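We were asked to recover a plausible sequence for a given structure. The inputs and outputs are reproduced exactly as logged, with field labels preserved.

PROBLEM: sequence recovery
POSITIONS: 592
GIVEN STRUCTURE:
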């Protein structure tokens, strides 16, 4: 593993400058990196202190920034306090130059930029500087990108479909990293999280994976907005991450060609606890019935217990010739050990079930919004078919179920194929001090339940959770509507075979009411997510990642329920919705 290329970004949001050697300093980052940032007019902030990225003009909000050129003069910056000089060149070849310690030159350059870059508010604009640099986080650091990962993403079906006719793969420079590395397999950089690494004379603690934003949609060579990278990542990889971030522990010089060595584990307090991709160790697996295997994994980072809730699921991310992922219900969690139920059908699930003890597998989570505290209340029915029983099993593990008066379990399968899971589910339900009613239907001998029978089953329920094949789910949704069930929760496990677009296509049209304006519109699958439907109607909703990870797009869900074709990572309240990732499951009202 070695350093292949080095970059710095003198002004936040503007293009990079490639270098062959970097002077990296604790509390400051690479000398010349993010020395200034141009405010966008949305906030009135001082020009001599750090602030969150939302106050600044950045690439994801103004993609024309990629058309500019930036150069920095560090000739006199051998001492930490020496001020650099920055020159910005517009797409029309007009230039402005400022020195970071000279307020007058910064003000002149800010006026130059204000005349050429549209504002996002009415406040005066300025070139802001801070001692630690204008990074996204207040602590300076170094970002590392693995080009092998970028190439693997490019070769997925989603990646190839998104690329232009003259492109064969994504340019790693889209991901705006300081260090590009050689010698790692695709996604192997995530194994560096929680480690101390040495690059030349620099020591870094690798603290977190990097979530990608719409800045990556900009082609660094053509400057065109051409590939929706966050959507490709979400669909092809099941997450929004590419690259890792390092906190500087020891200053020094690093040059292209320098070896990168793993030294030790990083202090736990420096590593960000998250649901993001990390490697887990396989402890073993056991067949629990027919073609269903329960796989035990140890979360080597110990993050699973920080976010565990009954009803959540785990995503596993595989490399099977190309990135591949699957979602599995978490059936049990004990300390750092998580167990998932895997049906051994399809190449991905077979690969997971056949993993040997001691092997590592990339995983993320726990994910999921259909948790026990949202599903249960009053009389609650869990209605499942086939392997769709596993969410019920996950919901029943360890939940308090406060406010639940009665539990109804309805399960449909063929030839008792999931009998072991049904038995385990009943045992978990009957262990509660709550009345339980159970119904099992073997379609081989009894046939499928009809509409009238489903309506009768669901009469009097306050909450219904349904998971199963599309036709079964639709039948339960129709029966729930006729039975007058107030809240229906639907589980969809998207995967590469049924990605986001395909999952949305299975949904039915629904009316969306906007409470603040009193208007409404008919949402249809071809409109995409709720965010895309709102934007198509000229309605602006705050957003950032567009993949359900950051939580920026959250709005109030005043009535109805939604479906998440790909479960978001961001955690929200029960009466909120992430419009970038959701579609309506029926008529809804939004607080916008």
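RECOVERED SEQUENCE:
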């Amino acid at each position: 593993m070695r350093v292949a290329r080095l970059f710095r970004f003198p002004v936040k949001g503007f293009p990079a400058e490639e270098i062959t050697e970097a002077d990296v300093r604790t509390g400051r980052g690479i000398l010349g990196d993010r020395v200034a940032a141009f405010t966008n007019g949305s906030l009135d902030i001082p020009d001599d202190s750090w602030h969150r990225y939302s106050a600044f003009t950045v690439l994801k909000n103004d993609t024309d920034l990629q058309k500019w050129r930036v150069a920095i003069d560090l000739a006199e910056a051998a001492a930490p306090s020496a001020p650099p000089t920055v020159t910005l060149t517009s797409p029309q070849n007009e230039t402005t130059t400022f020195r970071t310690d000279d307020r007058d030159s910064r003000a002149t350059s800010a006026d130059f930029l204000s005349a050429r870059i549209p504002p996002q508010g009415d406040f005066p604009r300025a070139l802001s500087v801070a001692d630690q640099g204008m990074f996204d986080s207040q602590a300076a650091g170094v970002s590392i990108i693995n080009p092998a990962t970028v190439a693997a993403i490019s070769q997925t079906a989603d990646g190839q479909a998104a690329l232009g006719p003259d492109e064969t793969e994504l340019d790693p420079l889209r991901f705006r990293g300081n260090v590009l590395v050689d010698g790692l397999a695709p996604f192997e950089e995530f194994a560096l999280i929680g480690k101390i690494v040495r690059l030349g004379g620099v020591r870094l603690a690798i603290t977190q994976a990097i979530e990608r934003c719409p800045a990556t949609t900009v082609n660094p060579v053509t400057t065109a907005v051409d590939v929706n990278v966050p959507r490709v990542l979400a669909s092809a990889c099941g997450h929004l991450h590419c690259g890792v971030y390092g906190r500087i522990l020891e200053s020094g010089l690093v040059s292209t060609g320098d070896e990168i060595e793993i030294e030790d584990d990083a202090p736990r307090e420096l590593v960000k606890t998250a649901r993001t991709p990390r490697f887990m160790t396989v402890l073993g697996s056991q067949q629990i019935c027919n073609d269903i295997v329960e796989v035990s994994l140890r979360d080597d980072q110990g993050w699973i217990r920080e976010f565990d809730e009954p009803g959540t699921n785990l995503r596993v991310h595989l490399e099977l010739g190309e990135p591949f992922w699957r979602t599995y219900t978490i059936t049990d969690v004990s300390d750092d050990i998580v167990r998932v139920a895997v049906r051994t059908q399809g190449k991905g699930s077979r690969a997971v079930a056949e993993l040997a003890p001691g092997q590592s597998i990339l995983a993320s989570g726990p994910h999921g919004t259909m948790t026990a505290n949202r599903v249960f209340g009053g009389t609650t029915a869990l209605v499942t078919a086939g392997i769709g029983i596993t969410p019920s099993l996950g919901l029943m593990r360890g939940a308090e179920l406060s406010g639940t008066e009665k539990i109804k379990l309805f399960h449909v399968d063929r030839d008792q194929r999931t009998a072991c899971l049904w038995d385990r589910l009943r045992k978990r339900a009957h262990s509660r001090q709550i009345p339980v009613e159970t119904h099992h239907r073997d379609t081989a001998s009894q046939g499928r339940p009809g509409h009238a029978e489903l309506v009768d089953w669901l009469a009097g329920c306050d909450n219904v959770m349904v998971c199963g094949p599309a036709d079964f789910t639709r039948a339960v949704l129709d029966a729930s509507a006729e039975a007058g069930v107030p809240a229906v929760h639907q589980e969809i496990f998207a995967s590469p075979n049924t990605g986001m677009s395909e999952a949305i296509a299975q949904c039915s049209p629904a009316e969306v009411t906007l409470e603040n304006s009193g208007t409404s519109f008919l949402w249809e699958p071809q409109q995409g997510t709720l965010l895309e439907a709102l934007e198509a109607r000229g309605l602006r909703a705050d957003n950032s990642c567009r993949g359900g990870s950051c939580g920026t797009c959250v709005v109030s869900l005043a009535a109805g329920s939604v479906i998440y074709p790909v479960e978001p990572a961001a955690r929200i309240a029960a009466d909120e919705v992430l419009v970038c990732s959701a579609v309506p499951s029926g008529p809804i009202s939004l607080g916008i």
